[in-house]
């Protein structure tokens, strides 16, 4: 049996080529990830808003697989309209699910992970353009986080994030002045980053939080799992 403990449903933007592979690598024994794709062709905030309108139909497909929790696996899609818009997104997803089914969004998972680790001062790495970068900084600051440093790959098109070299995010993050930082956050579920986490933590002495790592962390906690997943940072090693 593939899902002795729980089956997790993933709502994934259609152009994302990274998130599923990260989840398959990170999931502990007894947990299964089932994904469905919601159409996203890029286009910044407007394109993300169109994608978000499809979450109910995507969730209705996951329901047929008997999922025990649902993750909305898109950082920018969950922060573009701020915390209030994110709550509406969660409500749209929840409308298709049994009442007690946990629903997790990536942006909220990052915030929750940082607060769980008593972190407030962060450096942020993204692949986004200026419009989404500004919205993400606003989102984190509205959650009480202080974005001290910022760097972007400025990939131009959303699909290009998934085509980045594994070291792209690592090379940006390692250059930060770390004197007043509590952690480094690497944003975007379509940006290869999980292999950089341990390297960065050892090199910088700071916790490193990535979109897929944090989302899995919160999904597992919501499902009552406790344990340790070494090799992918302090969050999964020491905080489950």
Question: What is the CATH topology descriptor of the largest domain?
Answer: Rossmann fold
Write the element-wise H/E pattern from the N-terminal end onward: EHEHHEHHEHEHEHEHEHH
Query: Which structural class do the helices and strands define?
Result: alpha/beta
What's the N-to-C terminus distance? 24 Å
- CATH architecture title of the largest domain: 3-Layer(aba) Sandwich
Round the mean pLDDT to the nearest integer and report it.
96
Number of strands: 8
**Shape designation:** globular
Helical amount: 40-55%
Walk me through this protein's architecture.
The protein has two domains: 116 residues, Rossmann fold (3-Layer(aba) Sandwich), CATH 3.40.50.12500; 103 residues, Rossmann fold. Helix content is 41%, strand content 18%. The chain contains eleven helices and eight strands. The strands form two sheets. It has a four-stranded parallel β-sheet, sandwiched between helices. The chain has a four-stranded parallel β-sheet with strand order 6-5-7-8. Helix 9 links the parallel strand 7 and strand 8.
């Amino acid at each position: 049996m593939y899902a002795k403990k729980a089956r997790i449903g993933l709502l994934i933007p259609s152009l994302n080529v990274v998130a599923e592979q990260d989840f398959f690598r990170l999931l502990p024994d007894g947990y299964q990830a089932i994904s469905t794709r919601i159409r996203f062709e890029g286009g910044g905030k407007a394109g993300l808003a169109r994608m978000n309108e499809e979450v109910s139909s995507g969730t209705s497909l996951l329901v047929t697989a008997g999922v025990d929790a649902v993750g909305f696996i898109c950082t920018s899609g969950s922060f573009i309209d701020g915390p209030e818009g994110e709550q509406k997104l969660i409500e749209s997803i929840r409308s298709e699910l049994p009442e007690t089914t946990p629903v997790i969004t990536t942006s909220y998972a990052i915030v929750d992970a940082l607060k769980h680790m008593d972190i407030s001062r962060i450096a942020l790495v993204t692949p986004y353009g200026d419009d989404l970068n500004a919205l993400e900084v606003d989102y984190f600051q509205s959650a009480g986080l202080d974005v001290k440093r910022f760097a972007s790959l400025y990939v131009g098109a959303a699909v290009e994030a998934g085509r980045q070299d594994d070291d792209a995010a690592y090379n940006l993050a390692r250059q930060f002045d770390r004197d007043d930082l509590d952690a480094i956050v690497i944003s975007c579920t379509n940006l290869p980053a999980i292999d950089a986490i341990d390297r960065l933590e050892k090199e910088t002495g700071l916790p490193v939080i990535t979109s897929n790592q944090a989302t899995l962390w919160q999904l597992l906690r919501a499902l009552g799992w406790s344990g340790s997943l070494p090799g992918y940072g302090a969050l999964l090693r020491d905080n489950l």
